[in-house]
Each structure stands twice: as structure tokens, then as C-alpha cells.
Design goal:
Six copies of one chain form a homohexamer. The first copy, chain A, is of the alpha+beta class. In chain A, about 35% of the residues lie in helices and about 20% in strands.
């Protein structure tokens, strides 16, 4: 059974709706008059919204301690600057009836367009060895499918199906915008910007059960796994220069920037340093965006987020580029 | 007396020359046959080169413990991948005869062109208040002259006359290249990118005696001093919105990124976060460039540099943008 | 409706009472025989006490998840060295009927006496510029009222209405007691001891809704805000010496002691160093006092407090000065 | 042979003198005209002064690599805000002819007066057990002599003969000035303030050969050694209460404040916390004083000092208490 | 009343049983169909097992917020790689009817055999002073009984009655196995390996009420307490060499390895360094073992354990020595 | 020309000798009578000794700023507990005449015996895959020769030709001695103990010019390089189990123990944890031994060593196993 209309990202104050979600973070609390109510979060692949329900039937008085698929009816409104839903009805659904992919967070960008953007970049690589390597990787169907569907993280940033592709393309765009400002090797920079996080496809698993670390991921980590993936493709190219392989490997291994973040070496070439900075730049701005997704102008986010500080959305924001953002609706929300 | 021809940046192996420099880091050592020689560094406003001299006259047997202006004659050659000069003659000059500015490190970029680039950016600011503020600052002759001649640091990066202007323009360029990729306020971002380090003009002194910290700089620091400078200009604009002033101040105060680096608050708005990242990006890439300025391909720098690690210049570097670099000759050296 | 008699600070074992409080930290638990009971904390402006209630009516079986104003009846007794109340009745009150200031923690010291102590200190300042500055600040009614009513922190120490005044006066007293032991400038030391935390009046908000950070406070922080407040008063005194302004500013900016605690510079003058130590001394001793307020002799506090360690109240404490303490009842409790 | 007149502390610009010192930190350098000169530091028990000598005889051309006792003749003058001596003659003396104690840094305070101040404080202890313990310690001649002559540190602060007594008395004075401001046990606080560093008498050795760590000091440290010394005295008092012994021991063991500074436990009683803060306060202010001893008004110290930052002496300092300071001449220098 | 059969360590999937346990960590949750159930942990002196109960009677709907002694009936099965029990009945028992020692975690090793192993080691000490000291300690009945029954920690590792003896014997075994590989003093190494943690007998209390820190333990810590215990025995041996006492004391004081872990000095002799490493080795391997006690092959532990990382039990483990392990059943579980 | 007799390790007080060494750390100093002398260190492959020379000829007055091969004549004596040589003659030798390997620090253990010990261990591996892998590695002549001649570090510990083999064998011995005490897989533990540092053979270069980091070593590090070496051997064994490969890789990657020391993951299996501890144990004990090699009983080493603390050699050391030590002469020196 597929999710019906009313996706989380389309909600706005003043709607009356009936839809299905994954209900998480549920708790039973009393309001200021001592009346108990259910507090919960409604999630689908496009986002999430907070909800409240009063007049609890017996089977809900204990809450829903584990995430459940639910059908709800209710109305949306603005509560202290955050969108909220007040529920009239809540019914737990059988897992068997559910299309899980409707409820797993996923990118809302056009995956085909993102892939096309990468291909074009690969096609334009001036160094023939890197171009050949790129083509070899892209044409490995199993690898490429994984690369285009993996999340970029379990929860830190871009934690959604297709998130790795989003992050890789955005890093490429940043690299492209900076390459004329500093004396770096264009091809090494682009290749590293695209594939620095490639090890995520083996470090993480994704699918019906949500995002999780694999045993291999926990024992080796995405930094080393990514280095190995690229090395195994290079091995198929007998003429690939040893020096170039060493440098590409260094870019992949050092992209976490510091040893305490899991890189066995700090960046020691201009290209490795810049790939690390670009990765960090896109990750931190994504954390900012994802944390403030539901914060209204002149409002503050919670402290509990990957940046470990409350974030502020200014009351007035001026001209913002139309193309900007991790996806269309994010930019519109600004 | 002005410095004669043969500037440090124009040196290459195989030259026979006669010129004047500031001699620093001198020491008398014995070579492998037990013969004493003088080791020193020859500096002028365009850069520096290592030198050696054998057959020491009596007055040089003790070396030159303090920096001295000298006239030298000798030949240049490549020694283990680094340019070196072998001296035949060395004569100490009277300080009175010297044009000190010839020996104080200075940018080799076109200051007029850099200023023009800033003016144009200011002219294009969409927010009328920020544009008005920018114009007010630019038209304060004393302030503007200081801004255009100050170094960006004593020694970390851009430690040269005009370095602050170089750094500010380069940060603006990076901001300009990123602004369409993320949903940030264009005007706040540009203003912050240009003026985040403005407090350096009061934190540092520069002139004949080299670069130094002022008492004010040591007691207050450039973060607070810069915030005050901008605040004093805003005070002259009675209609400047309070909210905007608060946000601009936050960008300036938080641009060091973390409290332990001297920012009383971490960045908490998208614009403040991005200005911090841009400042950091340009600073680190400049440290890389300045540290490897004399390192030949497939060579390693020393450990003692602001990045606290040996840096590698690859044996082969492919296509590098012609416009790239902190200045023409740096890019060429690559 | 104002709070009736029986304030928290007057409670002792063996009382039978009926009063109103703010009920916080409520939870429903089972006792060792499996019987459910309500555990909660009863707060008013003079302090707090732990309470238990058995025989729960239906509307209390779910607890009170948010703080509520309540009317209670019950008896007090000593439980394992801590005062506790056993409730017979608990009734939730309407917020409309409440005088919120009765339940907001507030100093129990004589605000007029504290202010008088400050005025006298200001009057005795030997440096005419600092004395003039002090008088200007004191005579700004709006500023002065804020200074005398603000809390010194949200929760770390002196988190109560009037707490900033308490802390400032106590720091002055410490400064006064130390000034003859070290060669410091008396006037700068006293001024800094009194006003180092003045930025709290803009960093925090207080009133009916409790203590909170303002947006300005989160974006700029009390260190910079305090420096600006004093600077704006100095600006009204055209003859104020530049050097003195720089030093006073340094004392205010550096009073957190280290950059990682939010000071853009470390203390670099004798007076700045001593003001920082005095601030720290009074803050830590206050944390100790507030954490052990309800601990009986030979007892241990919890770990969760600003000093992050369990604190011990000795079994026997000898002569304690009659004047000592943050307020009369604290000293008596020892 | 005893040192002749002209002690380091009595020097001022414009004197012509002939005296003996310990010469340290010597180096041969060339001046700006290329002329070699000797740079050195002249030390005696009252302080030190920098010196220069031109026209070097043959035996001084290599400098004095190890500290030597010397007889010098020359003139004093002010050089860039620091007192300096220009030497005409320098003669190395035989170690046998020297009274070493004339050249070992020593307190210039009246040791008898300091002891008398301690005795009086001991006599006034209200707790009979602590008073008895104090008397027992004072009447142990060997112990007491060590306590009154030991330095308080090798080089951090109070690194001079009698320095431990100075520091202990000053901590007592601070404790006395604070005791009425906080609800602490007067006797425990005073005892702990006096004896917290008593372990230094076994951790350090002092005498002709300068200050050094003992093997016991390096293997056990002054924190544990001090605790043992007091425990061994308590063992002689059969009626000493166990609880009191435990608390006194806690004060001694925790006085470093944090485990990483060598205390096996953090302070967990009010008295232990205050003793730690007092020790820290006096130590840091002494570091400040000792570092700036030769800095003129509006001048900056070097970075290399126990506080690890350049320190500023304001241009103008107002009223300073006549009694203040670590000793008469320090206060006068202000 | 003593605990009946079916001890935690004997449980395996497929049993139907009726027994008594200490029930901890209870919570009421809803399953995926919305049905509430009780989740709890059943503990006895041999170990623990997770349990679930559906069909809750009224008195269990609120859970058991504090640990309770219970009689349960149910069946065991394997749930996602972890042993679990499904309960049909649960009845709270009166504390008076309970033999608490049946439920306090305790070693399952043969205490007599462990003691005998220590005695033999003591008997073989080559240094007569250390042998005499060892004999003196062993023959102090009160001390020895405490040493043989104390836990080695509250919860980090070996947190069970007899745990200190287990840990001490295992450290001795490791020392014995390493002593021929490095040039260390055999007797000092063995003595230090056995008694480095002796202070635990005063730092901790154990008995009916579980494991807790004593006031003495919190104020002085086991490092100093242990050093004092050994010193008090040495005091009874007038001929004990001072040097040896100093070295033994150093081994005890430095065994935490670093100051931030509570040692007032770092290890500075070969023997002290090795005792620290041995203590650390056995502690960390015990943490690993205790954390993975219920993890099945190819499974991962939780993150929340003293090593602060998820731990992996390989799918296949080859030859493991039959003697290995902290006790027989641990090794068998592998 | 090969080095003549009198190797550094054979020196003792009271010898008169004539030999050749590498002279390092030379400096010209004045003695207490003002007489200049040469201070230097004489090195050969067996160790080093400090030396002094008075009555300097002209060509030595400036010292030897770079290491030189020299022929010396002189006498040995004990100076303040350290062996020293007083030279009568010193002559610089031509580099061409030198057998460099005589002066490069090298193990003095029997390399054949060490290799035989490893082979036997490999032969006894119970797991056929690991045994096959071991045999494959041992029979690769080029690899094996590198493994048996590489140093284990540039300077931290085992920094000598053959040092990696020494360290690997000693780790194997420790593993062998511990394996029966803990429930670990014997074969994985032994394999990991032997080969955890195998990446050193590519990270470091050794030979005539001393020990240095390779470019590959600086860009990838020995952790990743070692993992790749073993993986490339495994690739030649098609039946090698995937799980086993993953676990072996985890042991190699995590052997530094913490991410900040260059391991991309912390140890998460029992075997990985133990290999890390064993590596650390042997490294730290070797640092201790190498630092105190020239320290006499009851003496202290310098602070500047890899353990960053002064180390103590007790006055009396009892029974030390005859087999113990990193090599025969080390043990004898104790």
C-alpha cells in the first residue's frame, strides 16, 4: 500500500488532512490543566512534523514506545513559530501493508539530473588517466547504483536515500567555483571532490529497515573502504601512473582533515587540503539547513544538532539566489 | 637610497648578480672539510633566498646576529631542489642610506585593481543600508588607506603590506563563487567577507620597523576592535536597522569560528558560518602557498609552518587556471 | 493571588502545612511494595523542597509533565538527611490566579542595603574619571533598575532576581579585602569587580516567564555586551582618558579568564587578572553553597551540579563568621 | 669572600659601579656595525640586571657557556625601558672565594616577622586539636627550619630561599581577609592555607648548588609528601579526631584543584575549595609580579613566563596600598 | 530465604523455569500492535538476563521503578542473538525474606584457590623484606578478609564480590608471564601487581546494599588509601629499607599511569611502568569480556560500556586455551 | 675502510683508546676557568658516548656543525655517573673512506635466531589460511629481506637496522605468554602481533644516509601501507575466508589504539585490543630502556625522551631474569 497524498513537506498552517506517516518519539504528557495528551513526530520520505493528540483512547494511554506506521486525521496550525498538527484520530497500521520507501527519508532532487551533472564533469577531465578511471567506475552498474542511492551519513547530514549523490555533486560544484581562484590541479580536485566519501556505500546499509552501519563499516570505516574501492578500479588500468595513484589515495585518506576524525594522515597536498575543506563546508552548511528546516524567521533551533549550538534564522533575509539550496523546497522555506 | 635591480622573486639558477638585501638568520658553520662559512637569508619586499659564503673576512667570522642591510655579489644555483646563492662579497650598509620599504614584505598585486574590485562589489550591494555603510567606510580616507596597506597578520598568512586587502578581496571572490550554491543573504555575506578582519588595522602596526602588535591589539584583539570600527560607522547612519546591525556584529564577532580562537560566540547564522569558513579556507590555502613557495616539484617543506606539518608539492601538476593564485608569480612557480 | 505563608526557606522537620508552590520535576514511581506514588519538587521564590504523595487520584496517575502551580497539604520530615514533605492533597491552580513573582527564585537579601553599599564604594573612588563614570551609570534610572534586578546567570550560580547585584557586591567585598595585600590600582579593581558582569542585563531576560537568553545575548554574549554598555557611558564623558578606557575595556573583555570561556583575550594586567580570579572565586563558592543548600552534615550532594562532582558537608563545622554567607539563612543552615 | 656592595635591587640608571655577580645567559653577538660584544645577565640574591660589553679580550670572545662568578666594572643606563649595564671590565672569579648564598635568590622580607605572624595565627586557632597540631609542628626545630627556608617552587613562583614561608603567610592573609565573607570553618581554612604546600620541603632541595627536585620529590610529589608530613605529626596526638584528620588530609591532597595538576581528588569541601583558590590566587599574582619586575610603565613583558602570555604594566597606576606587595621593593617599583 | 535453583549463568534457550531474581531496569512499553508489555532485567549473583512480560495485571501497569526482588515463571528463547525470557508470572517478594548475597554479583571462581595462588607467590619472593611484608599483610585477618571479598570497582570492571582478588591474581599471572621478557626486578613487579589496587578495600563498601563509595574513598581515593595501607604495614618492620619503601610507594601511587586518572605522579621506574600497563591490560580485557558476555558470534554490543565503543564478537573463533578466561563459564560462552 | 676495534658498547671507565666514530652534536664551550673546549657525541652502530676535548687546534675552534666521521685518541672515565671520554686528538675523515654501515645504529641481536623464532611460530599456526598466508609472506624474498632489516621507527623506539624484526619477535613472545590467560583466538593474535607494524618497511627508508620517511610513508602512513601489504598477499590466496580477511585487516588498521594516533578505527575485537596493548607495552618498555641505557643506578635520565618525563634507575635492582632484555648487553648494563 502506497502512502496517500499530503506529504510532510507540503504541510502549512490551516490545513485539515487525513494521511499516513511513521510515528516516532511518542510520549504521553499532561497539559497545564492536568489533561493527558499524546506528543509525537510524524515522518515520511519528504520530511516530518510535530503533532499532539488529546482525548486518548485506552490503547494510546501508554504511548507508542517504538516507531509505528499510523493513519491520522487532524488540523495544522502554527505554534510558537513551529508548524504543528492537532490530531483527532490515530490508527496503528500493519507493517505488512506499508511501502516502506514512502517513509524512509529520501532526496527530493532529480537523481537523473544529478548523475548527468557528474557524467559531464567526468567527461571533461583533462587528465586521461583520471578520465578513464572515472568512466570505468561509472560503467560498473552495481557500484554506480549504490553510489547514486546511498545516504551520505546515518544522521549527521544528507542522511537520506540519494544523499551521497547530492553531497558529491554539491562538492563538485563548490570545487568548480573555487578552482580558478587557487593554483590547484583541476582534475585531481574534481575527482577528489566527487569521490572522497565513496566508502559510505560499504560503511552504511540502507533499505526497508532504515540506515545502519555494516560490520565492515564499523571495523574498517568509510575512509579506508573508499580508498580500497578506488584502488580496485585503478588496478584494472595497467597504465595508471603510480604517482597519480599515490596522490589520489592521499586525497581520499586525508579528507577527514585531522587524525582524530579518522583520517590516518592530515592533508599534505594543496588538492587534499582543498577537498577536505570543501567536504567540511558542504557538510556544515547542510547541518545548518537541516537543523533549521522548521524554524521560522527570528526563531532559534534546539541545541541538540550536529553543530552543537542553537542556530538562528534572521527575521529578514534579503536576496537569496534562486538556484541556491540543497533542493527546491529548502530554498523556498527561507 | 633605493634598492637596485635583482629582486628576490626574479632570481633563478645560473645568475651572476650584485644587489642589496636585508640579511637575516645568519650563522657561521663549518663545512664537511672543517672550513667555516656564513649561512644567511637574503630578503627584500618581493621574497627571500638562502645564501652561503666561504672565505670569510675577519669582521664576518662572528656572523651578523641582528638583521642587517647588506650589499652582496655572487651566483645562484639549485641545491637539493632549493634555489641558493653563493656569495663572493658581503658589505654591511648604513641604515640611514636605506629605503626601508624596499625590504619590508609587500604584496606584488595591483592595489588599485584590488580596490576597484571592492568598490564595484560595494556598489552592487542590494541592501541600501549595507551599501550606504560601505560607501561611508570607503570614503573615510584615513580608514581606507589603513585598510588598503595593512598586513593581514604578523606572520601566519598574508603577512605583507597590502595583505589585508589581498585577503579581503580573495574572500569576496570566494563568497561570490559560493553564493549561488547555498541559500544565504548575498549582501550580508559579501559585507562580512570583505570586512571580517578589519580590526587588524588597529591590532597591528606596520612601517619601517616591520610588523608588530599594538598595545590596543594585545589588550582587545582584532575581533572586538573590528566590531567597534564598523559600529562607529553605523552610528553615523541613523536609519540603519537594529536587527541588521546585530547580525553584522555577530558575523564580525564570530568569524574566528570557535571561542578558543578568540571569538566570544560561535557562528549561529548561515551567513556567519559561511564567512568563518571562507576566512579559514583562504587563510589555510595561503599558508600552504607561502610555505611551499620555494619547494620544487616532488619536494617537501619543513615542519615549522602555520599548518604544523610537512607539505608536499607533487611531481606533476596538471592544468592550473591561469588566473589562479595569490599573485602572478606564485602561480607561475607551480 | 499572592502566595500564602509557609515559604520554602522556613520549612523544617515536623511541620503540618497548607501552602502553594510551583511543582516541578514530577514523576510517578512505585515504592518497594509496588505501590505507586508521586515524586515532585516544590519551588517558591525562597527555595525548594522535595515531596512525595501516595494514594494518587486518577488525574495524578500520569504525573505533571510540565511545571504547574499547585496548592498542597501535608507534613514535613527528615528523610536520609534531607528535608522532605509527604502530601495528603495536591490541587493544580489556574495560571491566571498566580502572582508569578512569588515563585520566581529571588534574592532574600536587602536590595536597598546592597545598593547603598555600592554607592558608597562609588563615592569613595579616588580616580575622578571612574567616580564620574560610576555616578553617571548609577543615575541612569533604567540601567540601574535592570542592574539591580537581573539574575547573574540562568542556572549556574546566583540564578535569581537580584542575583547580579548580590554577586557584584560580594565581588566588591572580596576586592576590598584583597586590595591591601597586592600592589594593584584600587579604583580600577573596584570598578571592574562591580561591573564585570554588567552585560548580563542584556544577555538575559527575566520576569514572569522565568530566566532566558535574549537573541542579542546569544549572538553577542555578555562579555561584549557589557563592554559596550560601559563604552556608551564613557562616550558621554568627553574628558575620560583614552588609556583608562582601554584598560577598563580590557578588564571587562578578559574577565572570563580564558578564550575558551568566551573572553576574546586573556587577562594581561594585574587588575584584569585579579578581577577574573575574584569573579571565579565568588562564582565557585556560590555553586558550592547552592548545591549543598539541602545537604545535612556528613552528607553528600548529587553529582549533577555546575562543579560536576559530589560535594561533602562535614559532620562538624566549627566557628563560622556570623556575617558570612550569601544570605542569613544559608549561614544558619551550616 | 662575601659579595661587596651594589646589590642588583639597588641599581638605577646613571650609576658607575664595581661589584660581583653570578653571570648567566652569556652570548657573543655582533652589533649593527658588525662589532662583536658580550651579552649577559648579572644575578645576585636580590635580583638581576642585563649587561653588555664591547672591546672583548681574547678569553671572552667565546663567551661564558656556563654560569660564572664575576667581578665587573661599568655604568648603568635605561635602554628601551629596561635597566641595562655597560661593562668596561669583567673578571672570572674562583668558586672557592665565593659565598654562594650571596648569589642564590632569597626573599628580602623579614623572616622573623613572617614567622611571628604565623605563630600568632596558630595561637589563635579555636579548635584545640588543630592548635595542638600547629604547636607540635612549630616546635619541631628541624621541620620548622626547613619550612622557613625552603623555596615555594623551582622556578614557577616564589622560587627563592624563604619563598615557601612568604607564600604560606600571604595565603594566610588572604584567608583571613576572606573568612568573614563566606560560611567556612575558620580553623580548617587557616591551617590549610598555611600548610597546603608543606610537602615542598621534601620535594625540593636548596643550598649552594641552587634549587633542584629530590628523588623522593620526583617519585612521590609534594602533594602526597605534604599529606604524609602532617599525618606523621597527627600520629603523635592520640586524641586527634578521625573526621578532622580526614578533612585536613583532603584539603592537602586536593589543593592543586584538578587531577591533571597532581591532586588525586578534586576539592569536595568548602574549605578545600577555598584553600585551592587561595593558593592559585597568590601563585598567579606572584607570577605576574615576578615577570614584570623589570618592566617599565606602558611596557610589555616577554611571552616566556609561567602565565604564558605577554603582560602589560599600565602607563599610569593610581593609589596602591602602601602595605601591598610581596616585599617592599616590589611595591616601590610600581 | 535462599535463592532457589536456576541461576542466571545456567540459562540457555528452550528452558521452562520458575525462580527468584532481583528485577532492575523495568519499563512498560507497547509492542508493534500497540499492546503494552513489561521489559526488565533479571539479576542474581551469577549474572543477568533480559525478560519481557505481556498481559500485565493492574499492579504492574506502572512498572517497578526501583529494583525489587521477584519470583518469576516463564520460558527462555533466543531473540536476535541474545538470550531472553518471556514471563507468565511475576510476584514482588518482601525484602525481609531475601538472602541478599544471592543477588549481589559475585565471582564464580574458587576463592580458596585464588588465595593459595597468592600465598605461593608471596612465599617465593626473593627479597626478604618484601616477603616479610607480604606475610605480615596476609596474616592480618581483618585486612586479608577485606582484600579477598572486595570488588575491584563499582561498575567499571570486576564489579563483584571477590573481584579485587580475581583482578590481583590475574595481574600477578600476567606479571609472571612477562617477567622473563624484560629486565625488571621480579619481586617489586610481583608485589606491585598484587597490591596496586589494595586501596579499594577502603574506597568502596560492599554488602547487602550493593557497592558504593565511602566518604573516605571520595575524599582521598584508592590510590592514596592503598599507599597508606602498605605504609602502615611497613612501619611495623623496622628494618625495611627506605629506598625500597620509596620505590614500592611510587609503584602504588603511579599505577593509574597519568595524573588525569588520579595518580599524583606518572610511572618513572621500569617496575612502576609495567605494573601500570598490566593493570590497564587486565582491566580493559575484563571490560571487553563483561560487555560481550551475552553477545552471540557475529554480533555487536551496545555503545554504552566502559570502553565507549560497540564491540564485535567474531563469527568464528579458533583455538582458545582451555585455561583462559576470567572464569570457566566466560570462556565456554565464547 | 671498516671501523677498527673499540665499539661504543664495549667502552668502560679507565680505557686508553684510538678508534673511529661518527661525531655529532658538537659545540665549543668555555670551562669554568674560561678555557674553550669541544663537546661532542661519538656514535657507532653499537651505541654512543659523550666526549670532551681541550687544547683545540685552529680548525676545531668553530666546532663541527654537521656530523663528521672522525678518528680520535683519548681516555675514558666516569663523570657524575655517566661514562665520558677525554680526547687528545681528533681528525676528520673523508666520507669516501668510510663503511657507513659501521656507524648506522643496528641491532646487536642474532638476526638468524630471530627469524627462526618467527618461522617456528608461523609453522605452528593452527588456522590453515593464516599459516598459508604466513608462508607466502616469508617466501617472498624481497619482502622478507626488507622486513628483517627495517627499523621499527625513525627515533621513537627500536630505531635501528633490524629493529622491526626485534620488535615483532618480542611482541610475539608477549602474545605467546598471555594467550593462555585470556579467551582470545591464538592464531589471529600471533599473526597480528608479528605483522601489525609491517607497513614500516614502506613508510621508512634506511641505508647509508640514515633513517628517513618516504614520500609514500608521509602521504599514507604505515597503518594503511601495512594493511595493503597483507591484503596483496591475501589476494594470491583465492580460498582465504572473507571474514578472516576483514578481521585481520581490522587488527592491522586499529593497532595504534586511538584515532588521534593514526588508526582510522579503535580496536573492536578482543584480538585487536590485545595486539594494540602488546604493541604499546613493548614500545614503552623499549623507550624506557633506550632512554636509561647510559644512566647509572640511583640516577635520572633527561626529560627529553619519547615518554616525556625524567626516568629513574633504582639504586638496587634484585633478581632480573637472565634471558630478559632487548639484547644481551642491555640486560648486562642493568
Amino acid at each position: 500500500m502506497h502512502k496517500e497524498k499530503f506529504w510532510a513537506r507540503d504541510l502549512k498552517p490551516g490545513l485539515s488532512l487525513r494521511s499516513t506517516f511513521l510515528a516516532t518519539d511518542t510520549a504521553v504528557r499532561n497539559d497545564s490543566r492536568g489533561v493527558p495528551y499524546l506528543s509525537l513526530k510524524l515522518v515520511d520520505r519528504t520530511g516530518s512534523v510535530d503533532a499532539r493528540m488529546w482525548g486518548l483512547p485506552d490503547n494510546l494511554r501508554g504511548g507508542l514506545p517504538e516507531p509505528e506506521y499510523v493513519r491520522v486525521e487532524g488540523n495544522t496550525h502554527d505554534y510558537r513559530g513551529t508548524l504543528q498538527m492537532k490530531l483527532n484520530k490515530l490508527q496503528v497500521l500493519d507493517r505488512e501493508d506499508i511501502s516502506e520507501e514512502d517513509y524512509l527519508p529520501a532526496t527530493d532532487q532529480d537523481l537523473d539530473a544529478l548523475q548527468a551533472e557528474l557524467w559531464m564533469a567526468g567527461d571533461e577531465l583533462g587528465n586521461e588517466h583520471l578520465r578513464e578511471l572515472f568512466m570505468l567506475m561509472v560503467s560498473d552498474a552495481e557500484f554506480w547504483e549504490a553510489f547514486c542511492s546511498a545516504p551520505a551519513a546515518k544522521s549527521m547530514h544528507h542522511g537520506r536515500v540519494g544523499g551521497l549523490l547530492e553531497h558529491s555533486v554539491q562538492c563538485l560544484r563548490v570545487a568548480r567555483s573555487l578552482v580558478d581562484l587557487y593554483p590547484v590541479d583541476r582534475d585531481k580536485l574534481f575527482f577528489g571532490s566527487i569521490f572522497h566519501d565513496v566508502g559510505k556505500i560499504e560503511e552504511l546499509s540502507w533499505g526497508g529497515g532504515g540506515f545502519a552501519y555494516t560490520t565492515e563499516g564499523r571495523l574498517q570505516g568509510h575512509v579506508v573502504l573508499g580508498d580500497r574501492i578506488v584502488a580496485s578500479f585503478i588496478k584494472q588500468l595497467p597504465d595508471f601512473p603510480k604517482d597519480l595513484e599515490m596522490e589520489i589515495s592521499h586525497i581520499l585518506l586525508s579528507h577527514q582533515g585531522e587524525m582524530e576524525y579518522g583520517s590516518p594522515q592530515q592533508p599534505k597536498t594543496m588538492e587534499a587540503l582543498l577537498v577536505h575543506i570543501i567536504d567540511n563546508l558542504d557538510a556544515r552548511l547542510a547541518m545548518f539547513q537541516e537543523t533549521t528546516a522548521n524554524v521560522r524567521p527570528d526563531g532559534w533551533s534546539h541545541h541538540e544538532n550536529p553543530l552543537r549550538r542553537a542556530l538562528y534564522v534572521p527575521a529578514v533575509t534579503g536576496a537569496v539566489s534562486e538556484e541556491a539550496g540543497f533542493g527546491g523546497h529548502d530554498a523556498e522555506e527561507q
